[in-house]
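Quick one, probably user error.
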């Protein structure tokens, strides 16, 4: 147990699967007597909030798009300390989906029912169970300010009672999609993701003759899967793709997500093509099967460039390359384009933003940050690690932004934390004249 915190403190914003995968593996390392960082997680809603109605991204009753067997330890290959990989992976089995089911005496039933993907609220219960088992320090509050310091990171967060507290860490892990309450137009006929699910929970979805769902990913898929259960005469799915793609689930596609070893060697155009075809702007197979026979659904290609209220309708301007924008009228619009990938930049103070721009050598926009993510899933060039797995898909592998390789994600983050802490301790020892061997990770 004394090894817990031996590699400093890692602060994580967002108490979802990524943070909990890192926290669980850090506990396993510590229990084996290996150096591991202390993990402190900050989240507005607590563990698994985005998989519950209170998070604003779901009503909790729709099914997970990924197999739950891709759990906190998957793919159970490699480890932060390579000579202890077998012991570490065995320890992570104690945090597996199967262990959760066995602990709740539902494993046999799940097998007999054909291993179905769980509902979102059940996945949240799994995350809560894993968090309690790991003993991770979870702080309930909204992160408000993030500041890079000489020694690491300082995060200020506001608790429900209005008080502001701070936590310092040697590294910062940012996860989550940001807010789900930002519609493209402030109008009662245009619903953000959170307003849509709030209306669903209160049974206040209005009858509609022509509805639109903007977005082609899983956020839009869940909203569409719910909307078809209500009184709507026609539903248009609006996305820039030429059709609504189904997420690839063959061995060849899945293996790229599970094992990103050769990913960085692929040409940039091929990497973006794989992500476009298999991850971004695609519906899961189960949702596609549910919608297949519903003749109310159609697809409109284009990007929404303008939204305006005209009488009782909302007019959306759709733009396609080399084409004149065309307006379509709807009486109900759900903006399900998903979260803002750069939402966390709003938390950084001016000096930290300057440091980030200096580190990547360009303005911190989406493309530049994606290109700056290193093997450890942190932004290269910063003096203190800022881990951004949600932006690591292009540079390091398509599984890091989602649930496809949480075990490899935790390996890279923790290996980096331990390596950095060993270097820091060695530097201190040299300055003090002491001679000590840094804790190895090989």
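Nope, works fine. Designed sequence:
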């Amino acid at each position: 147990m004394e090894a817990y915190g031996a590699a400093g403190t890692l602060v994580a914003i967002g108490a979802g699967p990524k943070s909990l995968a890192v926290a669980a593996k850090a506990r396993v390392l510590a229990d084996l007597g290996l150096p591991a960082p202390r993990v402190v997680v900050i989240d507005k809603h607590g563990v698994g909030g985005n998989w519950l109605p209170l998070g604003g991204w779901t009503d909790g009753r729709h099914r997970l798009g990924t197999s739950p067997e891709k759990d906190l330890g998957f793919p159970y290959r490699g480890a932060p300390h390579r000579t202890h990989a077998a012991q570490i992976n065995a320890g992570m089995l104690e945090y597996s989906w199967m262990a959760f089911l066995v602990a709740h005496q539902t494993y046999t039933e799940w097998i007999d029912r054909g291993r179905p993907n769980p509902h979102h609220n059940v996945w949240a219960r799994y995350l809560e169970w894993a968090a309690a088992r790991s003993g991770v320090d979870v702080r309930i509050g909204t992160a408000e300010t993030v500041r890079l310091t000489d020694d690491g990171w300082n995060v200020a967060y506001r608790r429900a009672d209005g008080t502001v507290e701070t936590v310092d860490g040697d590294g910062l892990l940012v996860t989550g999609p940001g807010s789900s309450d930002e519609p493209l137009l402030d109008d009662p006929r245009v619903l953000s993701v959170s307003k849509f699910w709030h209306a669903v929970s209160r049974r206040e979805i209005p009858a509609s003759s022509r509805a639109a769902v903007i977005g082609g990913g899983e956020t839009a898929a869940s909203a569409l899967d719910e909307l078809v259960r209500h009184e709507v005469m026609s539903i248009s799915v609006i996305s820039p793709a030429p059709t609504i793609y189904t997420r690839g689930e063959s061995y060849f596609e899945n293996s790229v997500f599970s094992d990103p070893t050769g990913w960085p060697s692929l040409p940039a155009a091929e990497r973006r093509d794989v992500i476009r075809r298999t991850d971004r702007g695609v519906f899961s197979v189960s949702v596609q099967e549910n919608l297949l026979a519903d003749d109310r659904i159609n697809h409109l290609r284009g990007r929404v460039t303008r939204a305006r209220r005209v009488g009782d309708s909302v007019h959306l301007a759709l733009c396609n390359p080399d084409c004149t924008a065309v307006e379509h009228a709807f009486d109900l619009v759900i903006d399900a384009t998903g979260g803002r990938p750069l939402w966390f930049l709003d938390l950084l103070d001016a000096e930290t933003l300057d440091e980030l721009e200096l580190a990547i050598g360009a303005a911190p926009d989406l493309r530049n940050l994606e290109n700056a993510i290193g093997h450890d899933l942190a932004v290269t060039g910063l003096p203190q690690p800022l881990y951004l797995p949600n932006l690591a898909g292009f540079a390091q592998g398509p599984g890091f932004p989602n649930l496809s390789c949480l075990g490899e994600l935790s390996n890279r983050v923790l290996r980096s934390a331990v390596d950095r802490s060993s270097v820091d301790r060695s530097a201190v020892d040299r300055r003090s004249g002491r001679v000590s061997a840094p804790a190895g990770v090989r």
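Residues 426-432, 434-442 have pLDDT under 50 and may be disordered.
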